[in-house]
Amino acid sequence: MNARSNLAAFVAGLVFVLGLGIAGMTDPNKVLAFLDVGGHFDPSLMAVMGGGVAVCLVGYRLVLRRQRPALSHKFHLPRQTRIDARLVIGAVLFGVGWGLSGYCPGPALASVVTGAPSALVFVAAMFAGMGVFTRFQAATAAEEPVSEPDPELESTPAE
Predict the structure, then answer these.
(1) pTM summary value
(2) For residues 72 and 75, what is the distance between their CA atoms, to the nearest angstrom?
């Protein structure tokens, strides 16, 4: 990555963290209240998520019309587009962790700067889980058939 890419990534992350903080999404109690549909339900997370999805939908449409990204020589789009067991298991683990703790990775990392013990424990557990997954992935990589990447998915903008 060059300096411009790093600066753009930093600014995007800063805007994301500020948005999370302003919206109150770094407070796990707010997230847990959203998930508590039978108790003190707080729908504000739905508005934040809806706003993020709307911006993303418009942004992707505009950006993918370009021949290439502004700060890279090609688009780096996901190669995997089908729903498989790995995706479903990962989504379930994410949802269970989110529901139990009130944190997801972005807000948890943003909350680390506050020194909140719950954020520190969550982030430590998240990194431990990432380490376990990396070891599991490396151990099972030899068992999976290797397929060649589709160069069209790497470099062609979506229609």
Answers:
(1) 0.69
(2) 7
